[in-house]
Amino acid sequence: MSSLPQTIHEARSLLRSGAMTSVALTEAYLERIVQKEPQIHAYLHVAADAALAQARTADERRAAGQDAPLLGVPIGVKDIITVQGMPATAGSRILQGFMPPYEATVSRKLREQGAVFLGKLNTDEFAMGWSTENSAYGVTHNPWALDRVPGGSSGGPAAAVAAGEAVAALGTDTGGSVRQPAAWTNTVGLRPTYGRVSRYGVIAFASSLDQVGPMTRDVRDNAILLEAIAGHDPKDSTTFPEPVPSYVDKLEGGVKGLRIGLPREYFTEGMHPGVEKATREAVARLRDLGAVVEEVSLPHTDYGMPVYYLVATAEASANLSRYDGVRYGYSAKAPDLLENYLLTRGSGFGQEVKRRILLGTYALSAGYYDAYYLKAQKVRTLIRADFDAVFEQYDALIAPVAPIPPYRIGEAPTDPVSLYLLDVMTLPSALAGVPALALPAGFIEEDGAQLPVGIQFIGRPLDEATLFRIGYAFEKDRRPETEDR
Amino acid sequence: MPKLTSAEVQHIASLARLALTPEETQQYASDLSAILDYARQLQEVDTDHLHPTASVLPLRNVMRRDEARPGLGPAEALANAPEQQDGYFKVHAVLEGSQ
């Protein structure tokens, strides 16, 4: 099993040289899924037969002299992104058994580039959470410490990649849901610029914030996967028309002379000392590599949490009104229509989703709209302006991803304010719509377990290339963490 | 800031079409009060001359050609329906005297 390629670029060179077929590679990954799933539970749906059929097709295409960026490479997809022929639950009971009649643009693009779909990966219900504990289908375990959460909401994709149950995966990031699980599983996760990747066929949570992001073992794979999914989509009018550059070609530019800002507001009161240490060490390493790192200020950072939880929940309350028990999904089958709406939604949604629908409905309701929703949107303008101002002088920012390392399953803070503050380092960049790349930065040793810590590089809109370039130099300089989990 | 009452939570829940148990109503009254109380710090920010950000995109008025394209057929559209009849989604009667 040690010869099993763990990255897209390793798999690709084996497939291209003929040293391995896609069928053999896919069989090996399916075998690993069987071995690992009893401990990890990353997958909600494994499509073994379909995956092997796709692998056979990939091998036939290759035998016929064809190639494609992902031809024959087995990947997984978060269960909030639709894939033709596979159920899509968004981790919710209300979508139990739902078979999407179409597929997401990102899935179609991966399919066209030859990817093999292993299955659908766990998520907090409608991507609302930090841990996958809000999934209606059970919690995913962190491969680095099985009694701990993998982060969330893209905890399934993160754990699958970390445990070697998929070469790479797609997640979604609304307020940090790709970056935080990447940081907590020693993997690489990108939140692209809002509008860089199509949201068509991705089950909506908060439409002004949702973005699909690649989750991978290393930075090179992340660049490969972003190239595969990014670009304008006629089916999503919020996608940028700008062409997608080759991120892979620019990986090796180094960081010499780059100006990187360190926002002082991200060193928060409740931050774990191990997280602060990893961030300071990362800064020192970048300086050694020739980057100029200076402290900067994003003065409206602390407002990110309340702004996000008013804006995102308002949008969610509208998006989730479609689950009516009539057209698809779970139905309580109550004897009259109003009762059926109330009971279907009351019992089909979990606690966190209901809490957010209620908060969003309140923020949008008559008498409170101006004080909460409109006010939040205005402060969002200031949060974006903070980033615009620092990016006039800096090429990127470096910051921690989460204030604490992964917590034990069942031991999340119980009061909602403390819980929502776990997102404080990923929310402002999401609200500003700027890209951010999370990657491994070390470990915190706690009770005999090695708990992964990540850092993030935040960049200018549409400048993912610079983030990959910094990330690649940083990763190359670190001792490679190739140990298999 | 006064705490949200159970009656207020019930009102929001009915707007959002969510049936809640009495225990849930109490819990959400307490949760929402705490979150809204925290959100009050936004009031200290001077936003008088600011435009609200509904979208961070510089794009405006994206148009496409108005031309026929294939869409979902009736069978595909109904495939996930909890109840259907004669090619329609089936719902309970909402008008008095109707069947």
What do you see in this structure?
The complex is a heterodimer of chains A (485) and B (99). Chain A is of the alpha/beta class and 485 residues long. Helices cover 38% and strands 14% of the residues of chain A. Chain A has an eleven-stranded mixed β-sheet, with helices on both faces. The radius of gyration of chain A is 21 Å and the shape is globular. Mean pLDDT of chain A is 96; it is low at 481-485. Chain B has a domain at 6-44: Glu-tRNAGln amidotransferase C subunit, N-terminal domain (Histone, subunit A, Orthogonal Bundle), CATH 1.10.20.60. Chain B has three helices and two strands, in the order αααββ. The interface between A and B is large, with 71 and 48 residues.
Count of spatially separate domains of chain A: 1
Classified by CATH, the class of the domain at 6-44 in chain B is Mainly Alpha
Oligomer: heterodimer
Physical arrangement of strands within the biggest beta sheet of chain B = 1-2
Q: Total number of β-strand segments of chain B?
A: 2
C-alpha Rg of chain A (nearest Å): 21 Å
Cα gyration radius of chain B (Å): 23 Å
Class from secondary-structure proportions of chain A? alpha/beta
CATH architecture of the domain at 6-44 in chain B: Orthogonal Bundle
Total helical elements of chain A: 15
Helix content of chain A: 25-40%
Order of helices and strands of chain A: HHEHEHEHEHEEHEHEHHHHEHHEEH
Secondary-structure element string of chain B: HHHEE
Largest interface: A-B, 71 and 48 residues
Give me a quick take on this structure.
The complex is a heterodimer of chains A (485) and B (99). Chain A has 15 helices and eleven strands.
Secondary structure elements and pairings:
The complex is a heterodimer of chains A (485) and B (99).
Chain A: H1 8-17, H2 22-40, E1 43-46, H3 48-63, E2 74-78, H4 105-112, E3 116-121, H5 155-162, E4 168-173, H6 179-184, E5 188-191, E6 211-216, H7 219-229, E7 259-263, H8 273-288, E8 292-296, H9 304-319, H10 337-348, H11 351-364, H12 369-390, E9 396-400, H13 416-420, H14 427-432, E10 436-446, E11 449-459, H15 464-477
Parallel strand pairs in A: 2-3, 2-4, 7-8, 7-9
Antiparallel strand pairs in A: 1-3, 4-6, 5-6, 5-10, 9-11, 10-11
Helix pairs in contact in A: 2-3, 7-15, 9-11, 9-12
Chain B: H1 6-15, H2 22-39, H3 74-78, E1 84-85, E2 88-89
Antiparallel strand pairs in B: 1-2
Helix pairs in contact in B: 1-2
